[in-house]
Amino acid sequence: MDTTEHLDVVIVGAGLSGIGAAYRVATELKDKSFAVLEARGAVGGTWDLFRYPGVRSDSDMFTLGYPFRPWTEAKAIADGSSILQYIRDTAEEPRIRDSIRFSTKLISAAWSSEDARWTLELDITDDDGATARRRLTCGFLYLCSGYYNYDRGYEPTFPGLESFGGEIVRPQFWPEDLDYTGKRVVVIGSGATAVTLVPSMAKEAAHVTMLQRSPTYITAVPSRDKFSDAARRHLPAGIAHHVARAKNVLFTQAFYQLCRRRPEIAKKLIRTQTARILGDETAVAEHFTPAYNPWDQRLCVAPSADLFKAMKQGAASVVTDTIDTFTPHGIRLASGQELEADVVVTATGLSMLPLGGATFTVDGAPVNLGDSWVYRGLMVSGVPNLALCVGYTNASWTLRADLSSRYVCRLIRYMDRHGHRSAAPAVDGPMKARPILDLTSGYVQRAVSAFPKQGDRQPWTMRQNYLLDAPTALHGNLAKNMVFDAPTPPAAPAPDLQEIHA
Prior knowledge:
Elements: E1 5-12, H1 16-28, E2 34-37, H2 46-49, H3 61-64, H4 80-91, H5 94-99, E3 100-101, E4 104-112, E5 117-125, E6 131-143, E7 148-153, E8 167-169, E9 184-188, H6 192-201, E10 207-212, E11 218-221, H7 226-234, H8 237-261, H9 263-278, H10 281-287, E12 300-303, H11 306-312, E13 316-320, E14 323-327, E15 330-333, E16 338-340, E17 343-346, E18 350-352, E19 359-362, E20 365-366, E21 374-375, E22 379-380, E23 386-388, H12 397-418, E24 423-425, H13 442-445, H14 466-475, E25 482-484, H15 497-501
Parallel strand pairs: 1-2, 1-6, 2-3, 4-19, 6-23, 8-17, 9-10, 9-17, 10-13, 11-12
Antiparallel strand pairs: 4-5, 5-6, 7-18, 14-15, 15-16, 19-20, 21-22, 24-25
Helix pairs in contact: 1-12, 6-11, 7-8, 8-9, 9-10, 12-14
């Protein structure tokens, strides 16, 4: 007899997305059995893994937080430890807490159309570090593990690195015992991690230099949201949270649309703000004026203008140049300048990893994501009963993540009502392909072929617009471009015992 455990829904990942998904399944699919599989030993995902100085959100917590759990902290742009505690507090809801299976890594998933279920191969690590392979089946699989490789980041080759006499640090694996007090630090990179690290490390280091190959758009935003503070003073917590969330959604979308439709105006606004804070037009022109338009790559934020203030105080500086070679005492640049350093931090970006590194098959055939199309931003063409949780790049991740979770719950309820066991998106004709993430950033371009494509029409586009996605996710046609299996015939009614004995 087959003793393999079967669950209705399996969620992979116990980070911000996975805990939100667990809440939705627990409250909207109350009759369904489910589990959350977490490869690590703790709740929190990214916010538990990343421990570098100053780690924080770059989205406001009224939109990065869950709509069902009001954010009550003072800061709208929150530090990593506060976000981690918020996720852990949410996970303490009994049905969520009891559903999480730690140290359980998804290795492979095989779909059987005959059985209408996924068979999952899992590696489960015990308290002694021993790993055993186990099997689990489920009716619907929901991947909430993000799209980054958390085991390794992007590591470009640096000439002469072995000659450097100081410490090399990777933000993804920050050493707890690193002491940079009074030391000269060079942070290589200009993305969100570098923009976070520089002002934080500058408080204790002798000096911090951000070495960038090319400029990035950086906007200063308040750490506290005065509008939201006022709403919380005068309104109940739940209503205030929704009011602040709505205001920030509208503002973020309006600015994004301005960047895409009138980039010259957006450029001028960003440059003018930076020049006003720094008081140095030359520095703005050299270090903060990218060659691309705003939102061709992700926009970085400086809460309370912390990066610019560190520069004005002389605690930090920015150098725009390329690396010639590392030297025993630092980094020599292509211009001939040498940056002396005791510590070099390589904030060179993350690597993208589809499906958490697991392998997938459908009726024995391997799933090649690069040949697939993304459906409504969360499902994959030709793959039944599978959803991927992918957040926004131009707004808070959670805005789309929560819509995806609610869509998954709607779809499962729809299948139950109509007697279906499986649903798979089906392409209805040729389309012009675009990358799933419409950004020119290096980490996106390096991974384009490993991820599903988006098309040129709905429902095959990855819209970066919450205001358009919300009605579709919550009320849209669930049958559009979806192939269901034949309805299961209703169970025959039990025979009347009196008639049998008559």
